Amino acid sequence: MHRKVIAPSVLAASLLLVIPASAASSGPGAPGIGDPYYPASGNGGYDVSHYDLRLQYQPKTDLLEGTATLLATTKQDLSRFNLDFGLKVSEILVNGAKARFATSGTQELEVTPAKPLARNTPVTVVVKYAGKPSEFKVDGWSAWQRTPDGGVAAQEPDSAVWWFPSNDHPTDKATFDVSVNVPDGTQAISNGVLQSQTSRLGWTRYNWRSNKPQATYLATLAVGKFDITTDRTASGLPIVNAYSKDLGDNAGAARASVERTGEVAEWLEGVFGPYPFNALGGYVPNVTAGFALETQTRPFYGPRQFQNGANVSVVVHELAHQWYGDSVSVEGWKDIWINEGFARYSQWLWSEKEGEGTAQELADWTYATRPAEDPFWQVKPGDPGPENQFHGAVYDRGALAVQALRNEVGDERFFQILKGWPTERAYGNAKVGDFVRYAEKVSRKPLAQLFETWLYTPGKPDASALNPAAAKAAGQAGPSASAQSPSARSAAPAKPVEPKSWKKIAETNTVHDHGH
């Protein structure tokens, strides 16, 4: 996690400053959307439906100039509202009239329109700005990564404040048009479909469109010199992959992995249902960061993901997020398990498909290699706290919870749940509890205790809760043995054997090492 860890006392004090939008029928919008992990993230009083970003970036100087147009609807009578942003603003227009503005905190841009805004009315906000993103810091940290030939915006839980003003929280999704002017010979990569590319007077403009709701942290921008490959899926979706020209020894392995994007996505459609967006791809810029991120339609991969050779497992992980995390996003950052537990489990399913170890074998190995006294078992994936939001337990213990669910409800119901959830919740947000209720509805079983054990109870759960078949074979009374899946029916050995895929999956653990 990249943000400074918030001490409980500081968090409590910060929360006192976040006034819910519903607390008053008129007045200023709240300076935060109400997320207890990140009180400064997002804003109250309005919803954004579309961002139109018209940018120019000079790689030599890191100067970014922009005009952002936000289309929004007010949720209350507003005399003032906030945007999240860090660069220097020169002018703001609200419904065509100049607005007053001021800054506060680390990222709050306070906007006072010429006239108060009535509730439930459309509003157009135009922000003109310029600055060097790498010079803006939050707690001494920057989400903007400079490269030898440009810059990259890709981070979690936020990166937008470094390059465009926004309502920076996953609960306020919007569509995006991103138009970027860069010097000839340089490319600009963003989300969605490349609508057009034109050159004039030494500059080339790239126009990208993401036409489905997208969280602000999933918007990405990469400027540099790339080798770009294009293709289409069997259903006609465009695939755009981009690789920095100076990846060195990692270049071949990166291509050997990311070029399988179409194949992996088509396989995932069989697991999670129809792909939810208008484009596919991935990009590997020349950055020092080793993490990967599910930036919508075009995941970011740090080159170090491929330092030991090709690793398709990381591509599986980030593409699984297109369903679990991007289409269905968190309601609050404490709900991170419904993103990461399933992305990690998709890697286990890929291993199962490739014959390199079943999901049950991977679960048994994961469980066996963590002794009861390991702090790993003290992290609660269902509410890990901001300091543990990207802890390995959210991923691995989170995936164990998914395998426990599979064993409890059986394969038929389990895969109905995996495929039905992204359809029922498409383009929306959800809490962990929403998933639990959905799984109970589909399976027709009470599951609250299972999830309480695996997601919310510190300590190592009893092995019988994970592999009831093995427990029964050992003479124990495993729960709901009649509902076991085929992968669970063969008893696991007393000492599990390391699955063939384990090391490659473990190499992707840095996907959640967001540089702090």
TrEMBL record:
Domain Peptidase M1 membrane alanine aminopeptidase: 310-454
Record Gene3D superfamilies: Neutral Protease Domain 2, tricorn interacting facor f3 domain
Names of the cofactor(s): Zn(2+)
Lineage start: Bacteria, Bacillati, Actinomycetota, Actinomycetes, Kitasatosporales
The family this protein is said to belong to: Belongs to the peptidase M1 family.
Compositional bias (Basic and acidic residues): 497-516
Molecular function GO labels: alanyl aminopeptidase activity; metallopeptidase activity; zinc ion binding
Stated name of the protein: Aminopeptidase N
